[in-house]
Design goal:
Elements (H helix, E strand, L loop, with lengths): L1 H12 L6 H7 L1 H17 L3 H15 L2 E2 L4 E2 L4 E2 L6 E2 L4 E2 L4 E2 L4 E3 L11 E2 L4 E2 L4 E3 L3 E2 L4 E2 L4 E2 L7 E4 L4 E5 L2 E2 L8 H24 L4
Parallel strand pairs: 1-4, 2-5, 3-6, 4-7, 5-8, 6-9, 7-10, 8-11, 9-12, 10-13, 12-14
Antiparallel strand pairs: 14-15, 15-16
Helix pairs in contact: 3-4
Length: 208
């Protein structure tokens, strides 16, 4: 199931993909996620050293580094993929698309949640850096080479260094039509609260 739907996601997102067999045999992004699923299973079953060995082998083979403790949803597509780094406390939702050179990293915090959370249907352009325990909302788009250090609202586009929102719901922001900044902050807070509530429910369901 995982393999079939992930290959179909690659076909949907990459017009250069000519067949499922080609994707299965030649796409390093797919290989990296297969290695990750194995490493994550080992990590969750307390085989921590073996999990790291698998993830480091995957890095050597594919050029993509995914920590086995990361949480990744369904149908992740890593296009090209060389240089992608996904940190230990990263969370990625369903149907996300990540291009080469992307870093989902930390900012120096030594414990706790250190890496970003991506919602569903998030696209991260090549070379982008999303750093720290921030939340990127559903259907957001992060432009190539952007450096994102704060939460990103849903259905928005972020560009630049540091990253800033230039579109929300497809509408371009400018000095005349910029929405109420308070409303934007409230939208970000709502997204963050929803994420925290989700994490709280997950913690409540963990057996003691």
């Amino acid at each position: 199931m995982f393999l079939k739907e992930t290959i179909e996601a690659y076909q949907k997102n990459d017009p250069a993909a000519r067949s499922k067999l080609e994707i299965f045999l030649l796409y390093h992004g797919l290989h990296a996620t297969i290695y990750y699923r194995i490493a994550h299973w080992l990590y969750c079953h307390k085989r921590r050293f073996l999990a790291r060995w698998v993830s480091q082998h995957a890095k050597w083979v594919t050029g993509i580094e995914i920590h086995p403790a990361a949480t990744i949803g369904r149908r992740l597509v890593i296009d090209h993929g060389t240089g992608v780094v996904i940190g230990a406390t990263t969370e990625i939702g369903d149907d996300c698309l990540i291009y080469q050179g992307v870093t989902l990293g930390g900012t120096g915090i030594s414990s706790g949640k250190r890496h970003p959370t991506l919602g569903n249907h998030v696209m991260v352009g090549s070379g982008a850096k999303i750093l720290g325990p921030i939340y990127v909302g559903n259907h957001a788009r992060v432009a190539a080479n952007a450096v994102v250090l704060r939460d990103v609202p849903e259905n928005s586009t972020v560009v630049g260094v540091p990253g800033h929102v230039v579109r929300i719901n497809g509408e371009k922001l400018d000095h005349v039509h910029t929405p109420d900044p308070v409303a934007l902050e409230l939208q970000e807070l709502r997204s963050r609260i929803e994420q925290l509530e989700k994490q709280q429910k997950e913690c409540q369901n963990v057996p003691l």
